[in-house]
Amino acid sequence: MISSQSQSLGTLDDPALASLAKQGDQRAFTELVNRYAPKIFRLTRHITRNDQDAEDALQETFLKAYSRLDQFQGNSSFYTWLVRIGVNESLMRIRRQKRRPMVSLDEELETASGSVPRELADTGENPEEVYGRGEVRDLLAAAIDSLPETYRTVFVLRDVEGLSTEETGDMLGLSISAVKSRLLRARLQLREKLRKRLNSDGQQKEDHV
Questions:
Q1: More confident call, 18 vs 117
Q2: Across-strand partners of 111?
Q3: pTM score above 0.85
């Protein structure tokens, strides 16, 4: 049974919940977490392109948000404030990955019993199976993942999360014209990637007929 207090928290808007959380009400902050965790994970996943990094960025986002509640002044929405933290955490993880040494896929693995070749799982899918399950959204997600970081982040903030051009530029330290330029390039690249993928899948279907 849901308590009346939980019900009342669920009816409060973000500023009211944030105010209660600042006063030490952990249940109010938990309500904010429950409200926005799925969206923040979607954001961090799009930027990092890795489930584990996205989960780590998600957790760090809310940990930092909780420790910095006194910095939330309500000048923007609570969600926008969370997005700013989430973007920074995600980009930090991307930068760390770039500093990690790269491993050649042709390099053999050293084991106790000697050297063995690296084996990669086949991640390819039959297009018919993809369409058969109605997972066209997976094609879009894959296309977004394939965008360069500079375009991908702008696209996710503007077209996926629905932030304004000004908010996006403020978060990324970009001018409005730079945001618009990168967004246009991202949209054009996505359109081309999807066109090629759909044409390729359509041709494969014809070949199997």
A1: 18
A2: 114
A3: no
